Amino acid sequence: MPNDPSDQRPPGTRPEADSRDRPRPGGRADPGDDLVSCRGLTKEYRTAAGTVRALKLVDADFRAGQLTVVVGPSGAGKSSLLRILACVDRPTAGLVRIAGLEVSRLGARDRRRVRREMVGYVFQQPSDNLLPYLTAAGHLDLSARLRGRDAPGAAERLLDVFGLAHRASFMPAQLSGGEQQRLAFAAAVIGSPALVVADEPTAELDHHAGESLLQAIGDLRAEGTSFMVSSHDQAVVRVADRVLQLHDGAVVKEVA
Ligand SMILES: Nc1ncnc2c1ncn2[C@@H]1O[C@H](COP(=O)(O)OP(=O)(O)OP(=O)(O)O)[C@@H](O)[C@H]1O
Ligand SMILES: [Mg+2]
Questions:
Q1: How far is the CA of 12 from the centre of ligand 2 (A)?
Q2: How far apart are the C-alpha atoms of 58 and 250, rounded to whole Å?
Q3: Domains, the chain, ranges and CATH?
Q4: Is the CB of 54 under 6 A from ligand 1?
Q5: Checking DSSP bridges between strand 93-98 and strand 101-102, what pairing results, if any?
Q6: Does any ligand 1 atom lie closer than 6 A to the CB of residue 78?
Q7: Predicted structure pTM score
Q8: Residue 137: its H or E element
Q9: pLDDT tens digit string along 97-122?
Q10: Is the distance from CB of 144 to CB of 99 less than 8 angstroms?
Q11: How far apart are CA 192 and CA 220, in angstroms?
């Protein structure tokens, strides 16, 4: 989707990975197989005040067809981890493999291709997911086309599932925070990508809308889509296949 600053590559430079290093078509893995593996994942941010170590040698595996929920206090590194898993950002060190492809080696252009084909991503801030000049229906059409899965009727169905049918022609600025969040989630799941990564997708939702979103996750999981979601919401944690608990950039607990 839009506004990804990591997509910038200086003109004339080559992508860092070999073009033969392609993901399997659609990136699907068999249910129960590891879809995503991280080893020694480290993320550092350099700031004027010094270096922040947001992730410290994280090892984790995420299985196909599962919902993994990442929990932890504010600042624990949840968004930093999800941005890397979604190929929006690169680790400072360590390895990330998605469907057998070492994405941590890829340059911005190849990462963008992997994202388009295999990953639906929802930023933590609802408005970061949306383009101000596209209607709700336009967002779903664009996402489906970018993913190469332009299924007839899919956009209408998802607008209906997420209670947005009456907002199909609305621009993002005309939508509430919760409506923006549901639209962003619908855009992430349209076309059933192999992997959906969503950063606190129920933060703006009321109980009913949150339940609809969990129901949609359940349905899509049954079709083989894998979800990695960060959340402070116990309703999300309750339906997780696995819970990964982060604290101060490290995995402190894993519950299957
Ligand atoms: N772009 C950045 N530049 C500098 N530091 C950053 C940046 N992004 C995140 N951090 C720092 O990295 C640490 C982890 O941040 P992150 O956003 O991953 O946490 P989080 O677990 O998602 O928190 P929250 O629950 O509040 O969303 C924090 O200490 C944060 O201040
Ligand atoms: Mg966060």
A1: 34
A2: 6
A3: 64-88+116-255 (3.40.50.300)
A4: yes
A5: antiparallel
A6: yes
A7: 0.87
A8: helix 136-146
A9: 998 889 988 989 999 889 888 899 99
A10: no
A11: 7
